[in-house]
Amino acid sequence: MRMEHGCSRTGCRCLLAALILLSVCLPAPAQARAPIDNPLGIPDARQILPTARDAEGVSATLQILVLLTVLTLVPSVLILTTSFTRILIVLALLRQAMGTAQLPPSQVMLGLALFMTVLIMGPTLQGIHADALTPYLNNEISQEAALGRAMGHLRVFMYRQIESAENYEDVYLFLEYQRGRPIPLDEKVTLDEVSSTVLIPAFVLSELKVAFVMGFRIYLPFLVIDMVIASILISMGMMMLPPVLVSLPFKLLLFVLADGWHLVTQTLLMSFA
To answer: Which of 42, 48, 145, 226 could crosslink 141 through cysteines, CB 3.0-4.6 Å?
Structure first.
């Protein structure tokens, strides 16, 4: 059902983009441009967007189409090329380790992960804004050059995280598949030799590995509490009582006394190079 819901969303977006494109490209008849009764106050796109009768109109139409396409790819870019993946996985494992199924709510976890991502990616985003976005808006560079500069900053960030975690084998894995031959152990691979199609999946694998290692370390103290409580209940003959009901208050108490949210957040922030 989720796949069907996602497909319907994608279909609606494509249909909306097609309708806007048709409304811009097709010249409307003269009587259609006359003021009409619009009780709902729905804006008429033909009065806002230029018609595609000349080069300027075609350029505006293509920019709108590219913008709609980019908006559909923003979630994937946010997940795959930023620190969002590591933060969200660690927070999800933390919630599972504490045994609170729906607390904190998923919206709170996503919001915290999103704002932490913005904070961590701040220097990278500032570099993209200064070197790519501002010159492009001032018509100093082309769109292709702006995308290249923006991707360059993201590539530096991703490669720095791989170096910090020493997960070079992930880069070699995809690079060997791309080249179709094994890479000698004494061969050093620099960032310029690694394409984005190799760097992005290697970065995702590196982030998954680091996130699960951090989640395992967070999981251990809560697992010890569960084992201790289970052993005590079995020794008392209370085998019908679920150990989770008894261990949950102790885990929450330990987490609060240790200022767990501060420690986890600090560890996540310091884990990025």
So the answer is: 145
